[in-house]
Amino acid sequence: MSKIIAKIAVICLLLITKTAHAENFYIDNYDVDLTVYEDNSVLVSEVIEVVFTNPSHGIIRSIPLQGSRIYDVEVNAPFILSKNMSELDIRIGSADKLVEGVQIYNIRYLQKIYNKKPEFYYNIIGTEWDNPINNVRFRVKMPKPFDANKAGISIGSYGIRGFDSGAEYQVNDREILGITHRPLSPHQCITVRVEVPEDYFFNVQSKWVNVIWLGLMLCTLFSFLLWYQYGKDEHVTPVVTFNIPDDISCTDVELIMSEKVTDKGLIAMIVKLANDGYLKIKNVGKNFTLYDFKKYQGYNVIERKLLKALNNQKLNREVSGDTLKSSSLFYQEWQEILKQAGKDEVKEHFYETYPMSFSMRCLMGAFIFINIVMTVFCACGYRITVEHLFISSVTIFVLAAMISTLRSNAALGQKLYAVLLLLSFGIPLYDAFSELINLQNTSQVMFGVFGTLISIICYNEMMKPNINGRLMKGKLLGLKKFIEVAEKDRLEKMAADNPQYFYKILPYAYVLGVSKVWIKQFEGIAVPPPEWADSGIYRMNSFEGFTRNFSNAVAPSVNNGGLSNSSYSSSSGGGGFSGGGFGGGGGRSW
User: Fold this and answer.
1) Per mean pLDDT, which range of 9-23, 239-253, 470-484 is the poorest?
2) If DSSP codes are grouped into helix, strand and coil, which group holds residue 184?
């Protein structure tokens, strides 16, 4: 008798505990948004408004795993995942904090469903909730249109087909929208089932996995091999020299050392023109003036065009920095000179022509394009639609624009502005793309991104110096080394032999990035002021001031037409029985 009483007491205790546990909270609103993809995976977004009647740490959301896998779980609160063979538990909340009253939990995850039947069968609300749910709203977005007569909703306890009242739903093209008008009791669920044609869902074949891996690896490997064969620079040995190689301009120096020409090369050229007697420079504060222009008598086409462009801006025999900054004509001429100084015909004097050829660029570009398309193909679960192709094309365009901008002749400030402008397109592009992707092939996507970056780097480094380019680079490296380590006694002797030696080297030191070192090396050495500059122009603060002011004068702005004023800113025929589908599950407090 005592054993029977003890068993009854244990049963009563369990019932009391379960009842107390069930009464610890209830759900006031439960919103579910399902986005179904063509590979029968579903992006689940749940907003659960929980009302705690007793203090708790949070809730545990349990999701059955039979016939499915879950990826990329996101929650708007601290959470811990625990997984076994049958279900995934998402423990939401903090062990150091108790909450009570109304709490809203946003849960988002991707669930890959392995169902060979031609149907979408899913538990919107599972049977394992021990607590009542007052209101439910749901939306199911299918990947393609379907027969509305073959879609159905079941509401109630496990095994119920359809529902009598207390809810409604409607089918609009690819969407199923529904809402309940009465609370769901504990263990009641909502299930959607849509019968679809045999070819409605795209089942990924294992051969695609091997094809994509092979394609990604080959494109990346071929890009690397082409660079290694045709673009890898040969070792250049510095040749010690104390002077600038003959017949080489400031822009040529920059082209040899960095494979491009920027504002820096032309600004150095202006100092060289002044040193050659073609103009004079006055720098005061944040402005400068160029005056006393002479007719150009040399043979360098870039120097001639630059001096002519400056002459065109003269007002009362001089031109100021403010005048240049506000002149759209000068800005356009400046940009044209930059392009001419770095065009392929000039590069051919110092670089191999084949890596720069149209066919080689197309081949390297094709590898980048294929890598991007295959990466998008993987990210989208081996499916390509018109939306994916459009997003891929725009992605390639934005990426190509960024590469072109970074390789252009523009100054650093202009490049940063252009990158920010392109990112203003990239952010909404990412938002649009994130609605389409299904990241279940993470390893291939990561390798695709890595391979694309390698291909881009190889494309960017294809220029290879020819014999003349290597010879000139060796001399320039030697000159740079001399500037950095020159002994003071040697510099004093050279300055005594040629008082203009310091000024002759100064613009080239500026292009080589060692003008500060060059000026510092001449501290304490008697160097007469140049005839072309106001007193002290050769001192560090004045020289840096002039180069900085001129750089600001040719930077793009609304006044000179370099920037736009526009702003950019950064979308019951098929019903199965309730509880019979994938997903669902339930939850409890902790």
Assistant:
1) 9-23
2) strand
* Alpha-carbon span 31 to 59, nearest angstrom: 16
Lowest mean pLDDT among 90-104, 165-179, 430-444, 498-512: 430-444
Residue type, 404: S
| Bridge partners for 125 per DSSP | 190
CA distances from 14 to 2, 17, 22, 94, 587 (A): 18, 5, 12, 27, 18
The 10 Å Cβ neighbour count of residue 443 is: 10
- Read off the pTM: 0.54
Asked if residue 448 lies in contact with residue 208, where contact means CB atoms within 8 angstroms, the answer is no
Could you tell me which of 81, 64, 192, 75 has the C-alpha nearest to residue 136? 192
Q: Give just the sign of the alpha carbon dihedral 516, 521, 526, 528.
A: negative
Residue that has been written with the tokens 């523009």 in this structure: 410
* C-alpha–C-alpha distance, residues 128 and 88, integer Å: 13
* Amino acid in position 254: E
CA 372 to mean position of chain CA atoms: 13
Q: Contact at 8 Å (CB) between 405 and 415?
A: yes
Give the containing element (helix H, strand E) for 71.
strand 68-75
- Long-range CB contacts (within 8 A, 24+) of 165-168: 167/136
Residues sharing a CB contact under 8 Å with residue 381, sequence separation 6 or more, in sequence order:
37, 38, 39, 41, 202, 204, 438, 440, 441
| Secondary structure of 346-374 in HEC code, one letter for each residue | HHCCCECCHHHCHHHHHHHHHHHHHHHHH
- pLDDT confidence of residue 387: 62
> Burial of 73 by CB count in 10 Å (0-12 exposed, 13-18 middle, 19+ buried)?
middle
- Rounded to 5 degrees, what are φ and ψ at 174? -100, 5
204 Cβ neighbours under 8 A, 6+ residues apart: 39, 381, 382
Taking the C-alpha atoms of residue 416 and residue 424, their distance in angstroms, rounded to an integer, is 12
Which H or E run contains 322?
helix 321-325
- Long-range contacts at 82-91 (CB < 8 A, ≥ 24 apart): 87/62, 87/63, 87/585, 88/62, 88/63, 89/60, 89/61, 89/62, 89/63, 90/60, 90/61, 90/62, 90/63, 91/58, 91/60, 91/590
